[in-house]
Known about the structure:
Blueprint: H1 5-11, E1 17-22, E2 27-29, E3 34-42, E4 49-55, E5 72-77, E6 80-92, E7 97-103, H2 107-111, E8 113-122, H3 123-134, E9 138-141, E10 147-157, H4 158-173, E11 177-182, E12 185-190, E13 199-201, E14 206-214, E15 221-226, E16 233-238, H5 240-246, E17 250-255, H6 261-275, E18 279-287, E19 297-302, E20 307-321, E21 326-333, E22 353-356, E23 359-362, E24 374-382, E25 409-411, E26 422-426, E27 435-441, E28 450-454, H7 458-464, E29 466-475, H8 480-488, H9 490-505, H10 516-525, E30 532-533, E31 538-539, E32 544-545, H11 547-559, H12 567-570, E33 575-577, E34 587-591, E35 598-606, E36 609-614, E37 617-622, H13 626-631, E38 632-637, E39 641-642, E40 648-649
Parallel strand pairs: 9-12, 13-19, 15-17, 24-28, 25-27, 30-32
Antiparallel strand pairs: 1-2, 1-5, 3-4, 3-20, 4-7, 5-6, 6-7, 8-10, 11-12, 14-18, 15-16, 18-21, 19-20, 20-21, 22-23, 24-29, 25-28, 26-27, 26-29, 31-32, 33-38, 34-35, 34-38, 35-36, 36-37, 39-40
Helix pairs in contact: 3-4, 10-11
Amino acid sequence: xxETYEQALYNGNRPAVDVQIYDGQNVTHLNDLTTGVTVSGDxxxxxxxxxxxxxxxxxxxxxxxxxxMGFEVRVYIGSDEVFRGPIFAYNLDDRGMGTIVAYDxxxxxxxxxxxxxxxxxxxxxxxxxxxxxxxxxxxxxxxxGYIIPKHIYRDKTLYDMMIIALTExxxxxxxxxxxxNRWGKLYVKERKEELRRVVIENGRTLLSAxxxxxNEDRSTTVKLVGNADVSPIAGTAxxxxxxxxxxxxxHYEIIDEPLNKAQLDAMARKILETLDVTKEEYSVEALGxxxxxxxxxxxxxDRMSNMYGAFYVDQDTHTFDVSGLHxxxxxxxxxxxxxxEDYEEPExxxxxxxxxxxxxxxxxxxxxPSGDYQKGFVATAYDPVLxxxxxxxxxxxxxxxxxxxxxxxxxxxxRVIPYGSVVAIKIPSMPKYNGLYLAEDTGGAIKQKRIDIIxxxxxxxxxxxxxxxxxxxxxxxxxxxDARAKSKSWSKYESKHIKTVTKTTVTPTSxxxxxxxxxxxxxxxxxxxxxxxxxGGANIPGGYGDCSSYxxxxxxxxxxxxxxxxxxxxIKVGQKISSSKARAGDLIFFKGTYRAGVSxxxxxxxxxxxxxxxxxxxxxASYVSGYWAKHYMQIxxxxxTKLEDGSVVPPSWFR
Length: 655
């Protein structure tokens, strides 16, 4: 009997990676060009993503393979297909190092929108009808059972419609379903509470594990105020046990809906259920099993991190190198969190609108003037990978058909702030998000003086919560086309307005002094020639560690800046910048040194040079020539920068 993949994994007989490109007629194998492959997914996303790193050069001047948009990527491990989907992006540098980006075919569910009505249909029937209407290949579609009396979808993506129908089904019969794409076809599968027989533990497949818990975002009481402008009504909820154990931490919110006290109390109790929790985060890195993906359940046993028992995979990243080494990084949860979206009956009549001078205004909405900051705005945050206001998942489009981008995109009521407007935002309670933004999205809840800001990451978006902000239109937009144009040359608009905005939005403090960069570099250089490299080690004061423990220690000790322990977490910190803008104190990342994807990190000491802890110890080297130039990946700015006028700006100014 042939070995299973798991048996081969444990025995060290790993199957080879086979990367194929299908142009509709012929298959081309790219194995001799491929330097690494990553396949990733998130339980909150519509589709899976594949990135293929290539050495695509004959002699440094000619490409060996011409990559075309729309060609189909197929990735096999042995005889098992682990990914199939079309190419949507290709990047190539002057050294011939390229990256293909592909998404599975569920991507198209987020790219197609319509307004449709369904009467007396099951969710499974709605999904099959949508697939038939828009030419989507389908596999097995599980019968969802419940017949939905009527659903009207207005301006929804196909993914929205399907998730809404499945959410309604779960409410009625308790059955959970997921949308998956295999072999280029859409499947609807029921999620049953069954544990996959995979055990990740020390001594077998576990490489590293981490666990954290926090009450920093906990609330033990909730107060909601309705009818605030006329005769305020308060609804409250309180957890006496939590108050006794952790103290009083009150969540306060003004509710725009016309609710009575009983309704506000009920809403407060429901909100308290979600806020009165200790947040726990689990992550593991292990030898890879290609069918352990987001949404599956596994068992983890690790004594040090106290991770025992069953977990669900929230996010997965599988990394394959050309030798067949396969590792996976997993974000885990004790509960199964699947995409959900409640059905809301569309308004029966659209608001009356009038047009004047090319600007459309709607009854009840007042076009905001340009110039000075206006108070009274409320901001919330969203992350496209969690669904966002359009609930499209990542990748997706904004309402103006731009790509949602953290640090740039905001959702607005276009009747108040026109699409394409360059907007300055001040957030007194969280100034690190002060800055310039582009009005390019909207949503059903974004009305009047409500805005939504894209923020990277589930935790960061939740931490932002709901905040009072001040808003100024720096340059009035002219509509969706203007938003699309400005998004393509956003850095030009930032440079144009940065001086005006920084004088009013950023206040220098001792914690954000521009001298921090030089302190970090000086601190890093103290260890030149004094450290030994130890993979997984983290005792820099004791004389040993690895690359990421070194950068973590230096930034914490000399920059008062805390970041994650490994390169996978550190690369998510700060703002990615062009190598031409590198400054002392920036983080620099390298790929493919011992695995595909990010694998090494150091600190820029001056343009072209960096300091790091590697096999040769702690030393300074060039990243524009020699070994490190061949593995260069990107540079992130993580520390605030002092401008010539003395003002201090955050890393996002340099995106």
